[in-house]
Amino acid sequence: MILPVYLLGQPVLREEAEDITPDYPDLKPLIENMWETMYNSDGVGLAAPQIGKSIALIVIDGSPLADAFPECKDFKMVLINPQLEVLDDVPAVGREEGCLSLPGVSETVRRHEHVRLRWLDENFEPHDEEFSGFASRIIQHEYDHLLGEVFTDHISPIRKQMIKAKLNNIAHGKVNCHYRTSAARKLK
Question: Which residues are part of the catalytic machinery?
């Protein structure tokens, strides 16, 4: 089932996500719905807060970007209760990012080049791995959603001011998307 993507302005996008246990209700169908929603929206990652659930769950499939970023080849995973550790001191050169929850907005964001991630997969098997390059960027972007953050939180105040009208329009549902969305406040 394709779920609506929650847009900036929805309170759930600013909440810190809760860890889940194997007995979380209907987890398998939820994960399947997240995959379907992400692919329908042409995304490469989707965090549960983006579909209105404040839980520590992310799906990622970076493989469509493998031609430009070889580290994303076969980069498909379910992350449950992830824990992120930055392995370098200085964020890398900025790259442009967008987000399904902020349609039509893209900004240059500096991210760390190397991270270590510990997580549980959909079978609650533990994993511990290091990631670099664009794979690291995707993980950091999605992980931010579990902290109640969005990518525009990492841009300069002057850039935020320049896109303020766009962000307000998104919060009011005044956007055109080819995928289902849920805005905080509909304009009358």
Answer: 142
Q: Residue 101: what are its φ and ψ, rounded to 5°? A: -85, -5
Beta strands in the chain (DSSP E): 5-6, 45-47, 57-61, 76-86, 95-98, 106-109, 114-120, 126-132, 181-182
Contact 76, 61 (CB under 8 A): yes
Residue 162 burial (CB count, 10 A): 12
d(CA 160, CA 164) in angstroms, rounded, equals 6
pLDDT tens, position by position, 1-53: 999 999 999 999 999 999 999 999 999 999 999 999 999 999 999 999 999 99
β-pair partners for 119: 127
The residue to which tokens 């964020």 are assigned: 91
Q: What Cα–Cα distance (Å) separates residue 118 from each residue in 40, 122, 131, 179, 186?
A: 28, 14, 11, 31, 39
Calculate Rg over the CA atoms of the chain: 16
Q: Does the predicted model carry a pTM greater than 0.90?
A: yes
